[in-house]
UniProtKB/TrEMBL annotation:
The chain crosses the membrane at residues 46-64, 85-105, 125-146. It comes from Marinobacterium lacunae. Belongs to the TRAP transporter small permease family. Its main location: membrane. GO terms for cellular component: plasma membrane. It is found in: Cell inner membrane; Cell membrane. It is a multi-pass membrane protein. The lineage of its organism: Bacteria, Pseudomonadati, Pseudomonadota, Gammaproteobacteria, Oceanospirillales. This is TRAP transporter small permease protein.
Amino acid sequence: MAWLAFLLEALAGSILLALVLLTCVDVFGRYFFGNAVDGATEMTEIALAIIVFAEIPVITWRGTHVVIDVLDGVFGRWVKGLETLSAVLISAMLYLLGDTVMGQAARALRRNVTTEYLHLPVGDIIQYIGIMCWLTAACTLSWGIYRIFMRREQHS
């Protein structure tokens, strides 16, 4: 899984660098030449989608998402059991979300929906989002299973 996390972070980092360069060129062109980069808004939207959905599986697999543990001290072990249940439920919901998104992608591809300026196929972008939802579902489930075995080792 470490190599997949590295690849996704490399993808997100390279897209972020490209986004920074695009923004610089767009602003420079707009203010000094009176001409912005055509399709910069679309490219920015697509880049943000790629960055966000590339990082969600990595954050989930590492368990580095934001957690508020105010009730852990009050409920103790009982809340820890809910952690596993929540991992299963979140995984199931992400899988269903991925299915729904892939259905939307198939519809967009059937209808040949493209972006307004660059005429990029919207279905491909939506498919990427669906695949990342499925990958995040798998990461969430594996993270929950990992937590179960780590808890058992700690109590042994």
